[in-house]
Structures are given as structure tokens and as C-alpha cells.
């Protein structure tokens, strides 16, 4: 009986860690979707992205399991802000005939992340050190580093597009489409 009880405890513990993120993520998807519809999706996406990066970095240094569970649940709230706001941004930025390709690439990126994430996670778990160098801590640190690189690349590419637009080299900058679509679809109702 003692063997079954310890085995059950080992199985239940990872479920709590995963469930604290998943439940809050699923619970807040509709909230952030409605919030992105009523207000601009850009700040919802940016603050969700920033919050998830900061929370992942903080989680990687935690030693208490209860604070881990609480911050993991809060990171689920931040991650939930990304999905509906990104859909809204895609529909606002791309033309009608470009939407199928844009959503295909968006869906493909999620599938690739889910499949390659398992392999990368297996490699990270091979890190042989203990304490603050445990493999599970590196999941959160690598996620934070990738998010920082993505943020930096997005900022520089956006600056390049604005620079080319202002110099007259780029006639396809979609600000007029975004403003028109945002104002026509963000009505209260």
C-alpha cells in the first residue's frame, strides 16, 4: 500500500503544475478575446507577451512549490492574452485574399512548436547539474530568451518598415488598413 501511495503522489504532483497553467489559460481565453474586441489588440498582445516573459524568468528562480504554482497560474493568464489578440491582429493587418495563408502559417507555427518543443525539452532535460541549474528551470529561461529575441527582432523589423515607408521605398505599409478595420469592427455591441 505504501508503494502505491508514493507512486500516486509522484503522478499527482506534475499534474498540479500543468493544471495550474492550463486551467487559467483556458479560463481567460474568452475574456482576452472580448477585451481585444472592445479595445485595441496590440497592447493586449504586447503586455501579455511581456508578462509571460517576465513571469517565466521569475519562475525559473523559484524554490517554493506554492509560489511556483501561483506564478504558473498567472503566466497562464498572460499566455491566454496572446491567442485571441494575435487572431485579431492577423485579421486587421492582412487583406481578405491573404488571410488563408496568414492563418495557415500561424497554425503551422503552433504545430511546429508543439512537436519540436518535446525534442528540445528532452535535450534540456539532459543538463546534468542540480540546484539552480536543474533542467526544468532551463525551460523557463530558454522561453524567456526566445521571447526577448523575438521582441527585439519585431522592434527592429517594425522600425525598418516605418523607415522605408517614410522614405518612400515601401508603399505597402498597412496602417491605413489597420485603422480602417479596427474602427469598423471595434464597435460596442
- How many beta-strand runs? 0
* Quaternary state of the chains: single chain
Strand content: under 5%
How far is it from the N-terminal to the C-terminal residue, by CA? Answer: 59 Å
Q: Give the total of domains.
A: 1
Low-confidence stretches: 1-11, 168-180
Radius of gyration: 20 Å
Mean pLDDT rating: 76
Enumerate how many helices there are, as a single number. Answer: 6
Could you estimate the helical fraction of the residues in percent? over 70%
Element-level helix/strand string: HHHHHH
What does this structure look like?
The protein is mainly alpha-helical and 189 residues long. It has one domain. It is built from six helices and no strands. The longest helix has 37 residues, at 2-38. The model is unreliable at 1-11 and 168-180 (pLDDT under 50).
